[in-house]
Design a protein that fits this description.
CATH class: Alpha Beta
Order of helices and strands: EHEEEEHE
Structural class: alpha+beta
CATH superfamily: Dimeric alpha+beta barrel
Number of strands: 6
Distance between the termini: 19 Å
Number of helices: 2
Strand content: 25-35%
CATH topology: Alpha-Beta Plaits
Strand order of the largest sheet: 2-5-1-6
Number of domains: 1
Shape: flat
Largest sheet: 4 strands, antiparallel
């Protein structure tokens, strides 16, 4: 079994109503529950918008990243899957596809130490 990171882009914007946000959160929690029961879900977190961008050295820190709404990274999961195809299939339950969201699937490197 391999580990994969699912990186979530886009989704609901700040103009969403509290009701829309709650409904969306319920969809996310149901998806996490489904993946956890299947033994696929390892961990994950939502991310606050904005942040800091460090480049060149720690002394060069700016606000950001500044990207278009559809490119904003809203959070991530770490999942277990046999291969890329299986990891991509897990994304079928992603609640934000209908809101213009997308999922980047990346395999986690195993280092022998």
């Amino acid at each position: 079994m391999e580990k994969f990171m699912l990186i979530f882009h886009g989704g609901l914007g700040p103009e969403s109503s509290p009701e829309e946000m709650q409904a969306n959160m319920n969809q996310w929690m149901a998806w996490v529950d489904q993946l956890a029961k299947a033994g696929t879900y390892v961990s994950g977190e939502a991310l606050h918008p904005g942040g800091k961008l460090v480049s060149g050295s720690v002394t060069n820190v700016t606000d950001g990243p500044f990207t278009e709404g559809k490119e904003v990274v809203g959070g991530y999961f770490i999942i277990n899957a046999e291969n890329y195809e299986a990891a991509a299939a897990v994304c079928a339950g992603y609640p934000d596809f209908d809101k213009g969201g997308s999922v980047q699937v990346r395999q986690v490197v195993k280092f022998d130490m």
